[in-house]
Write a structure and sequence with these properties.
By secondary structure, the chain is an alpha/beta fold. It folds into three domains: about 35-340, TIM Barrel, CATH 3.20.20; about 370-565, Glycoside hydrolase family 3 C-terminal domain (Rossmann fold), CATH 3.40.50.1700; about 610-725, Sandwich (Immunoglobulin-like). The chain is about 30% helix and about 20% strand. Helix 5 links the parallel strand 3 and strand 4 (about 95). The longest helix has 17 residues, at about 120-135. Bound molecules: alpha-D-glucopyranose (GLC).
Length: about 725
């Protein structure tokens, strides 16, 4: 017997419980709306507002459902007054903006936050971001970006939570809870928008906006779960993606936008297109003109159009000609009004102008610093190079990014300010006020000039320790920044070779927004700290770790390949019929490179050491609808306080369809005192053990599982679990 878990998939999201009073109120508004006013709600127009009388005029005529990139309580209130006091039906506008990793206080990029494996941290950080953004009059963010990504060439990996659906789902839930808070109608509640629905991260060649071909099973098991988690957490909106998905672009795909989203998941909120994604259906080649693009998008299930205005321009004719039903327009308007009512916009449409958004205060900076510390991943630490002593007298800080604020903030920096950002150099100087700290940039981020190497080498020679900051420039990651190479840009690797050859204790600090190919660096550098793009408090957080005020405990949310040719390379891959064997030529591998990564998913060191023991399952035999309780002990075997992330993976070696060699199904980050031993507990039941079988139905099939508990996706303790009827 297989337990079909339809209930699990159909569970309605938090805010969805249909409220008859709200629904009848919506219907009353709808009944009074003209077609022009209805189409006005389906349109999201961009800012800025300064000098734009057009936006005010459109608002006054009820022609704007939402805006993006208009900011400032005063500006937004002026626009809102035009709608609420000037238009016939006084429907409030929803003000949106990309609050991706902070608004004024900038936190680590989402890929870094995922490295913390700490959803509670993400919730706190998102709550603060929501408070700052709503202070500026905003009530909607185009976040979280929950695209699963297996290809580091794609620059937008920086914005997501990496390659795993379980970790991605945990992060998605946390962002939504943080942004929207306990009460959607509170003035500091920021509507979430899970994006980009769906499959955008699987862009062929890692090229942004490129084609995706994803099987239904992979969609359901890899790409959907973070979105489902966001909606189950109550996300009010979704953003449809740019990509062609198996021949039907995601912004005109009835399967994903209606069958799954509405039919299976009962999503009651609304879908906004990505910027101009509807007009791009013409480029995709599924629409000959704007009218066909509007018809395909709206009837597939995209409710609001961002930037392009094809709905307003074409729907009157499409409705008149019967190509689009009036009811389709009404349903889109209904969803948008439902969200606006849930946010309390009809009751309280205006922002409080007396409370303007402020520079990051001490509390915000403290949280940004802590978030950055929690997000950093110690990749290598030979000979306990780190932490450095706080009593160092002479330190060299070398590298083109050591004093570069843009590289520390990364992309989508909202209302953040470069001048409010602590550089790595400033952080080291603040941590060692009595030391002589020498700075040498060493090289540029492009070209091949070694003109700066000599000064950098001299700085290293005259110091007791070296901090070498390498990575990517701030504009090398984010949207439209796909890279065909994953190496350190410019002459950085040659600078690193020259500085490391000096032979002083050296710690490499990476400031980057994607996994890079670092095999040459890793051979030479004794210590490597992945700091990602740590945000406003970057320098202080890095110094906290370098000098031992904090211990690194992050883990990689994305695989670091040994070389570019292995990409896409991810931990939860299939076994194939010929898994790689060194002693068997005819197996799945390369003749000129390993098949294993440089650093695997889930990898990360700390300044202490830990041991796992006593893995037990109780019971070891279950029926498909039961669960087992997994217990394991984790012990701090070192002499320093430290963190460990204990990760639980499952594997099936035989089922009705092939299964990955490992699937993350649980994790816990713990802080342990020296010598402390703690027992951890994980539940494993249908939600974790099920998968889409041969009939594409989600079920737990009878069979044998291997349960592995480790501190990365490689190695660990394993125990069997048997499922039978
Ligand atoms: C961009 C991005 C999307 C963003 C939107 C609004 O093109 O794809 O993530 O939210 O436009 O800025």
């Amino acid at each position: 017997m297989r337990i079909l878990l339809a209930f699990f998939l159909a569970a309605a999201p938090v805010f969805s419980a249909p409220n008859t009073a709200v629904e009848s109120r919506i219907q009353k508004i709808l009944n009074r709306m003209t077609l022009s006013e209805k189409l006005g709600q389906l349109q999201q127009l961009g800012g800025p507002i300064e000098g734009s009388s057009q936006l005010m005029d459109l608002a006054r005529h009820g022609k704007i459902g939402a805006t993006l990139n208009v900011r400032g309580a005063k500006n937004l209130n002026a626009l809102q007054r035009a709608a609420v006091e000037g238009s016939r039906l006084k429907i409030p506008i929803l003000f949106g903006f990309d609050v991706i990793h902070g608004y004024r206080t900038i936190f680590p990029i989402p890929l870094a936050m995922a490295s913390s494996w700490d959803p509670s941290l993400i919730e706190k950080v998102s709550r603060l971001a929501a408070q700052e953004a709503t202070l500026d009059g905003l009530r909607w963010t185009f976040s979280p970006m929950v695209d699963i990504t297996r290809d580091p060439r794609w620059g937008r990996v920086a914005e997501g939570a990496g390659e795993d659906p379980f970790l991605g789902a945990a992060m998605a839930r946390a962002y939504v809870r943080g942004y929207q808070g306990e009460n959607l109608s509170a003035p500091d509640s920021l509507a979430a928008c899970a994006k980009h629905w769906v499959g955008y991260g699987a862009a062929e060649g890692g090229r942004d906006y490129s084609t995706t071909e994803i099987s239904e099973r992979t969609l359901r098991e890899i790409y959907f779960p973070p979105f489902k988690a966001a909606l189950d957490a109550g996300a009010l909106t979704l953003m449809s993606a740019f990509n062609d998905l198996d021949g039907v672009p995601s912004s005109a795909n009835p399967f994903t936008l209606t069958k799954v989203l509405r039919g299976e998941w009962k999503f009651p909120g609304f879908v906004v297109s990505d910027s101009n994604a509807i007009s791009e259906l013409i480029q995709h080649g599924i629409a000959a003109n704007g009218a066909e693009a509007a018809q395909r998008a709206l009837t597939a299930g995209v409710d609001m159009e961002m930037h392009s205005r094809l709905y307003e321009e074409n729907l009157p004719t499409l409705i008149k000609s019967g190509l689009v039903a009036q009811s389709t327009v009404d349903e889109a308007v209904r969803r948008i009004l439902r969200v606006k009512i849930a946010l309390g916009l009809f009751k309280q449409p205006y922002a409080d102008e007396t409370r303007t958004s402020h520079t990051p205060d001490a509390a915000a900076r403290k949280m940004a610093r802590w978030a950055a510390v929690r997000s950093m991943v110690l990749l290598k630490n030979d000979g306990k190079t780190l932490p450095f002593s706080k009593n160092l007298k002479r330190v060299a800080v070398i590298g083109p990014l050591a004093n570069d604020t843009a590289a520390e903030l990364g992309s989508w920096i909202g209302n953040g300010r470069l001048e409010e950002t602590i550089t790595l150099l400033a952080g080291v100087r603040a941590a060692l006020p009595n030391a002589k700290v020498i700075f040498a940039s060493g090289c540029a981020m492009s070209g091949d000039s070694d003109a700066g190497f000599a000064k950098a080498v001299r700085a290293a020679q005259s110091s007791d320790a070296v901090v070498l900051a390498l990575g990517e420039a701030g504009d090398m990651t984010g949207e439209a920044t796909s890279r065909a190479f994953l190496n350190l840009p410019g002459p950085q690797i040659n600078l690193a070779k020259a500085v490391l050859a000096v032979g002083k204790p050296t710690a490499v600090v990476l400031l980057n927004g994607r996994p890079l190919t670092l095999s040459t660096l890793t051979q030479r550098a004794p210590a490597i700290l992945e700091a990602w793009q740590p945000g406003t408090e970057a320098g202080n957080a890095i110094a906290d770790i370098l000098f031992g005020n904090a211990s690194p405990g992050g883990k990689l949310p994305m695989t670091f390949p040994f070389t570019l040719g292995q990409v896409p390379l991810y931990y939860n891959h299939k076994n194939t019929g010929r898994p790689a064997k060194d002693d068997d030529h005819y197996t799945s591998k390369y003749i000129d490179a390993p098949v294993t990564p440089l650093f695997p998913f889930g990898w990360g060191l700390s300044y202490t050491s830990t041991r796992l023991s006593n893995l037990t399952l109780s019971p070891q035999k279950i029926t498909p609808d039961q669960k087992t309780i997994v217990h394991v002990f984790v012990e701090n075997t070192g002499n320093r306080l430290g963190d460990e992330v204990v990760e639980l993976y499952i594997r099936r070696r035989a089922a009705s369809v092939t299964r990955p060699v490992a699937e993350l199904k649980g994790f816990q980050r713990v802080t342990l005192k020296p010598g402390e031993k703690r027992q951890l507990k994980f539940d494993l039941g249908p939600k974790e053990l099920g998968f889409y079988g041969l009939d594409m139905k989600y079920a737990v099939e009878p069979g044998e599982y291997e349960i592995t508990v480790g501190t990365s996706s490689v190695g660990g303790l394993t125990a069997p679990l048997s499922v039978s009827n």
